[in-house]
Design goal:
single chain; 178 residues; alpha+beta; 6-stranded antiparallel β-sheet; elongated
C-alpha cells in the first residue's frame, strides 16, 4: 500500500449567484492542463428537481513528480438549484446559470505508489527510514509545491466567480426550454 500524506484537507469555496456552468468546468480543466495534470473522473451525478438541477462531480488530478512520489489533487463540486437565466452586462444579454456552488479542494502526496518497497518486511523498514530521515527535505518541498498549487487553483476559481458578480438577472428561462 502506498504511503499517502494529506497536505490540503477540505479547502472549501462557496459561491451563490450567476455563473456559466460549462465555463466553470472548462476553467478547472484548463488549469489542470496548464499545470500538466492528468485527470481521472471518480464520480458524476446529475438530478433534476423542481427547484432546479443538482450536480455532483468528483475528479482526481495527478502528476508524477519522481519514480517514487506522485501528487494528487481531488476536486469535488456540488451545484444546487441550478437554473438557466438571462443576464445582462453593459446592455448585452447572455444566457447564464444561477445556483449555489460548493467546491472542495484536497491534495495528497503519495509515496511508493507503485508498491515496490512492500514485498519484503526489511524493504518496508528501509523505506520508512529513508522517508523519515534521508528524504525528509524533498518531502517538505513537495508538500510546499502542492500547497502552493492548491492555493493558486483556489484563487483562480474564486476570480472566475468574481467575474460574474457584475451581471444582473433579466429573466428566468423555463426548465423545459433548455
Amino acid at each position: 500500500m502506498a504511503f499517502v500524506r494529506v497536505v490540503v484537507d477540505h479547502m472549501k469555496l462557496e459561491y451563490s449567484g450567476l455563473f456559466d456552468s460549462k465555463e466553470l468546468f472548462k476553467h478547472i480543466a484548463s488549469f489542470a492542463n496548464n499545470n500538466s495534470l492528468q485527470k481521472r473522473d471518480t464520480k458524476s451525478f446529475e438530478q433534476d428537481l423542481p427547484e432546479g438541477k443538482c450536480i455532483e462531480t468528483e475528479s482526481d488530478y495527478w502528476r508524477k513528480v519522481t519514480d517514487y512520489a506522485r501528487t494528487t489533487y481531488r476536486i469535488r463540486i456540488l451545484i444546487h438549484n441550478l437554473k438557466k437565466v438571462e443576464a445582462m452586462l453593459d446592455k448585452k444579454k447572455k444566457n447564464l446559470s444561477s445556483g449555489k456552488v460548493v467546491i472542495w479542494f484536497d491534495a495528497f502526496l503519495e509515496q511508493d505508489y507503485e508498491h515496490r518497497w512492500e514485498d519484503v518486511p526489511m524493504l518496508l523498514f528501509i523505506r520508512t527510514l529513508f522517508d523519515k530521515w534521508l528524504y525528509h527535505g524533498y518531502t517538505e518541498r513537495f508538500e510546499q509545491r502542492i500547497t502552493h498549487l492548491t492555493n493558486h487553483w483556489y484563487d483562480q476559481t474564486e476570480k472566475f466567480f468574481n467575474f460574474y458578480r457584475h451581471y444582473k438577472t433579466v429573466s428566468k428561462i423555463p426548465h423545459f426550454a433548455h
